[in-house]
Amino acid sequence: YPIIKNSVEDDLKTVFDTETGLVKGESSFLDWREQEYPRWMQPADIFNSENLGTSAVHCKALKILGEIAGILGDKVDSVRYLGFSERIKAGINKSLWMEDKGFYGQYLYGRNFRLLSPRSETLGEALCVLFDIAEGDRAERIISNVPSVNFGTPCFYPNIADIPPYHNDGIWPFVQSYWMWASAKAGNEAGVMHSIGAIYRATALFLTNQENFVAYSGDWFGTQINSANMLWSLSGNISIVHHLLFGIRFTEKGLVFEPFVPKNLGGERSLNNFKYRNA
């Protein structure tokens, strides 16, 4: 435990921006840098940028770490890590929220002066809803205002015109799954149905669970890199049943059910041979 604690403290000193309360570093899974960052940005510039999704993940991870410390009886560390989590949450809401658009900006960037990228970042937006970072009516506004297209919700929007589809101008079923969960949490049935349609359509058309597909065509052809039977796409597909329709939640206190069944998908369903621990 002391080794883990020291590692966390060292990491926080490196990546935590005390001025904004955000976390430095590139965009979560969006790691092909030419796809989502300006071409002038060097690795050091990308490290110093402060991304929505990356900050949201750190916010939740530090909250969990604080809760673990509390369970272990370490009140000092519990307060410390919960405090870090709250500071990141406050930083996201202060520095990345765009009131005129009704959702968070993609990231803060710039060498001498900080600018906020006005693009939406779908995974980060969804995580802010799921992790209760978006307070008040912001969760509902995010789900209502983040742009979707005919074939789903792009990884970020708008796309970059001269960059071929992958993260840019791309829809990833696993990201669409998080968006579906967030839409359900916000009570947005239209967002849920659109997400289910995006995931099932691609699976039925390709006869497998592709890693990604082109936002403007709905086809996997034209993407820069792709994989068939991709596990995180497959997991997102399965989550339509487990996480959404049956609402299975794994909590520290046990198994909880919070089903969300859109009106158009009403009816009786049964789930058999689902193993949870030894049950």
Features:
279 residues; mainly alpha; three-stranded antiparallel sheet; two-stranded antiparallel sheet; 45% helix; 10% strand
Task: Please characterize this protein's 3D structure.
The protein is mainly alpha-helical and 279 residues long. The protein is built from 9 helices and 11 strands. The protein has helices at 2-15, 43-48, 52-71, 75-96, 122-130, 138-145, 173-185, 189-206, 231-245; strands at 50-51, 97-98, 103-104, 107-109, 115-116, 120-121, 156-157, 170-171, 213-214, 248-251, 254-257. The strands form 5 sheets. A 3-stranded antiparallel β-sheet has the order 1-4-5. The radius of gyration is 19 Å and the shape is globular. The two termini are 31 Å apart.
Q: Describe the strand arrangement of the main beta sheet, using strand numbers.
A: 1-4-5
Unreliable spans are: none
| Distance separating the two termini | 31 Å
Estimate the strand proportion.
5-15%
Note the overall shape: globular
Calculate Rg over CA atoms. Answer: 19 Å
Average pLDDT, rounded to a whole number, is 94
SSE string, helices as H and strands as E:
HHEHHEEEEEHHEEHHEHEE
**Helix count, per DSSP?**
9
Major beta sheet summary? 3 strands, antiparallel
Protein structure class:
mainly alpha
Helix content: 40-55%
